[in-house]
Amino acid sequence: MKKIAVITCSIFICLLVTKMSWSASLIIEEDTHHLGNNTMPDWDVPVPEGYVWVKDFFLPTLPGGISYIVLRLDTFHVNGWECISFRPYGDKIYINGILVGDMIGYGCGGNDAWRFYNFNVESHIFHDGWNTIRIEVPDDGSDDIMFRDIKLMVNW
Ligand SMILES: [Ca+2]
Ligand SMILES: [Ca+2]
Asked: Closest ligand to 50 CA?
C-alpha cells in the first residue's frame, strides 16, 4: 500500500508540473471611443471621432515559442449582415498595417449590447517594441460603433 501511495503522489506532482504555465496581458486602451458619422445622444461617447482610430503601444520582448497572441476588445453596436448587405465587409482591426480582425455583429446595431471580440493574432505580426493598432469603420461611416478595453493576452 505504501508503494502505491508513493506512485500516486509522484503522478500528482508530475501533473502539477505539466499544468504549470504563465500568462500575461497588456492593456492597450481602456477609454471608450466612438467611430462613425452619426451623433448618438444616448451613447457614452455621443460624438464620433471619425472613421479611424489609431494608437501606438509598446510590447516588451516575449519568450520564444509563442505562436499567437489574443487580441480582445469590448464593442458596442457593431452592425450585422442585415445592415451591411450593401457592402462586403465589416469593421476592421489592423496591427502594424495587417488585417487581424473583421467584426460583424448582430442585427442592426448589435442588439445595443456590449460584446467582446477575441482574435488570435499570429505573433510574427507584432514587433518587439513599438506597434500600431488601427480600428476603422467603413469610409461611408455607415456603422457607428463604440469600443473600449483593448488588451493583448498571451499564454506560454
Ligand atoms: Ca452611421
Ligand atoms: Ca452600428
From this structure: 1
Residue 67: give the domain boundaries.
Answer: 22-155
CATH code for the domain of 131: 2.60.120.230
| Ligand 1 center–CA 80 separation, angstroms | 13
Q: H/E element holding 84? A: helix 81-84
Ligand showing the shortest atom-to-Cα distance for residue 145: 2
pLDDT tens profile 99-127: 999 998 877 765 678 999 999 999 999 99
Torsion of CA 88, 90, 91, 97, to 10 degrees: -60
- Grid cell for residue 31: 477609454
| pLDDT, the chain, mean | 85
pLDDT per position as a tens digit, 9-47: 444 444 444 556 778 899 999 999 999 999 999 999 999
Does residue 11 fall inside a structural domain?
A: no
pTM: 0.83
Cα–Cα dist 57/1, whole Å: 58
Domains: count for the chain: 1
The answer to whether position 103 is within a domain reads yes
